[in-house]
């Protein structure tokens, strides 16, 4: 038999348990009976992450509580008067408070699930409040859906409603902010505890991601105004390129175009994260709505229809502005390349003219050099004949020839030798230069 494999003896990846725990993180809170859920979201920068953790730690020190679940980015606390769930995300932290309600208990508009929390602790939460919503969970035995529908008036607020969880519950909201909070009403008909918890969690996430997605809209409107002027400026520069008559004009337009390119890239770098985040948040909103498994209530828009009519146009605006930025960046790059090509062609033409002038100068220098070489042959022949004449005079007692005749005969001989030597030296230098090339 093969020896039995013992898992503990295998080398384990250091992230194995952490990744598996992440897979099971943030489970929905099972909810039984009537419940008030208050959900707060604070947007903050990455530098405030530790401050958010420290503030949650202070809450555990000021209340007799039990940490049900805890990690670096998630904590569940339970006290005698409320339950709190804290989650840390990339650019925000969420605080969800749960408070049981007595069946049939009337709920005052100012009541929250975190009334038992010290206001000083709430005021010390780092970041700026982005989302504040109440989710009231009741049974259909307490509040009938018919009574809610009967209270709606034709000229009142637009109510968004749907049956969810395979028609096991009813949800009503108008996405308006009253007394600082938006409100959801869930009427539970036959949901289980976990279904109730998942429905509450999805509604809180829909409200959170809806608001976070809309952060891209003001940025899109701001960039839209700048894009209009940038596109107009680019069109004017293209006209200047066509009217340019000198390299100086082209270089001036190229400098302006390079400045515009820098501004475009700065705008792209500044808004890429925001537009990308808005797109991702919008996807999460639509995913959570799909998970609700809506069924239409006659006469009222569903969550999907409401988001398609109100949220989708804003997201389309962000996407269109992002696309216009990318297109403007590409157009600026193409026009810059075109203008650089024109400038390079002009520089090449000037370089060709300069090289032609250098060639003419080189040919002139060659002719002058050949002329000098001819004169050098004459000079060397003259001095050589003089040496021969001196030698002939010095040895005239040894022969009877006339020194002038000897000198005259030597002149062509010396000239030929000098010319032959000069030509040979020129060929040798030319061969050496060709070998080096």
Descriptive tags:
437 residues, alpha+beta, single chain, 9 strands, 9 helices
- What is the makeup of the main sheet? 9 strands, mixed
Number of helices: 9
CA-to-CA gap between the ends? 78 Å
Poorly predicted regions are none
Protein model, in words:
A 9-stranded mixed beta sheet has the order 2-3-4-5-1-6-9-8-7, with helices on both faces. The chain has 3 domains: 30-211; 216-353; 359-436. It has 9 helices and 9 strands. It has helices spanning 16-23, 49-62, 119-123, 145-150, 193-213, 216-243, 247-292, 303-394, 403-436, and strands spanning 35-43, 66-71, 74-78, 83-88, 92-100, 128-139, 160-164, 169-173, 182-188. The chain has 437 residues and is an alpha+beta fold. The two termini are 78 Å apart. A hairpin with a 3-residue loop joins strand 4 and strand 5.
How do the helices and strands line up, and which of them pair or pack?
Elements: H1 16-23, E1 35-43, H2 49-62, E2 66-71, E3 74-78, E4 83-88, E5 92-100, H3 119-123, E6 128-139, H4 145-150, E7 160-164, E8 169-173, E9 182-188, H5 193-213, H6 216-243, H7 247-292, H8 303-394, H9 403-436
Parallel strand pairs: 6-9
Antiparallel strand pairs: 1-5, 1-6, 2-3, 3-4, 4-5, 7-8, 8-9
Quick recap of the structure?
The chain is built from 9 helices and 9 strands.
């Amino acid at each position: 038999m093969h020896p039995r494999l013992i898992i503990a003896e295998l080398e384990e990846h250091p992230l194995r348990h952490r990744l598996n725990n992440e897979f099971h993180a943030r489970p929905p809170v099972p909810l039984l009976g009537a419940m008030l859920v208050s959900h707060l979201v604070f947007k903050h920068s990455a530098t405030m992450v530790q401050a958010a953790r420290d503030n949650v730690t202070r809450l555990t020190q000021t209340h007799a509580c039990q940490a049900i679940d805890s990690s670096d980015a998630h904590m569940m606390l339970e006290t005698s008067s409320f339950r709190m769930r804290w989650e840390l995300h990339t650019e925000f932290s969420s605080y969800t408070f749960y408070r049981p309600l007595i069946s049939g208990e009337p709920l005052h508009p100012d009541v929250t699930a975190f009334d038992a929390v010290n206001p000083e602790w709430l005021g010390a939460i780092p970041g700026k409040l982005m989302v504040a919503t109440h989710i009231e969970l009741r049974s259909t035995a307490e509040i009938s859906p018919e009574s809610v529908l009967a209270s709606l008036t034709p000229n009142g607020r637009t109510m968004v409603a749907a049956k969810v969880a395979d028609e096991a519950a009813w949800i009503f909201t108008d996405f308006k902010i009253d007394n600082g909070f938006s409100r959801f009403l869930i009427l539970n008909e036959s949901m289980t505890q976990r279904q109730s918890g998942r429905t509450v969690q999805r509604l809180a996430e829909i409200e959170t991601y809806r608001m976070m997605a809309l952060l891209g809209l003001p940025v899109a409107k701001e960039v839209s105004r700048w894009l209009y002027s940038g596109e107009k400026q680019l069109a004017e520069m293209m006209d200047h390129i066509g009217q340019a008559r000198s390299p100086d004009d082209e270089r001036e337009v190229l400098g302006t175009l390079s400045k515009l390119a820098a501004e475009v890239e700065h705008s792209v770098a500044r808004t890429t994260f925001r537009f990308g985040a808005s797109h991702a948040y919008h996807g999460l909103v639509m995913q959570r709505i799909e998970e609700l498994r809506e069924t239409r209530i006659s006469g009222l828009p569903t969550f999907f229809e409401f988001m398609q009519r109100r949220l989708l146009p804003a997201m389309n605006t962000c996407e269109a502005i992002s696309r216009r930025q990318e297109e403007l960046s590409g157009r600026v790059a193409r026009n810059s390349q075109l203008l650089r090509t024109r400038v390079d062609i002009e520089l090449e033409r000037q370089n060709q003219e300069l090289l032609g002038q250098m060639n003419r100068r080189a040919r002139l220098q060659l002719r002058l050099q050949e002329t000098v070489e001819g004169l050098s042959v004459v000079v060397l022949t003259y001095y050589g004949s003089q040496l021969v004449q001196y030698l002939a005079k010095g040895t005239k007692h040894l022969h009877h020839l006339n020194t002038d005749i000897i000198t005259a005969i030597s002149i062509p001989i010396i000239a030929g030798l000098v010319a032959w030597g000069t030509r040979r030296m020129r060929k040798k230098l030319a061969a050496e230069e060709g070998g080096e090339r």
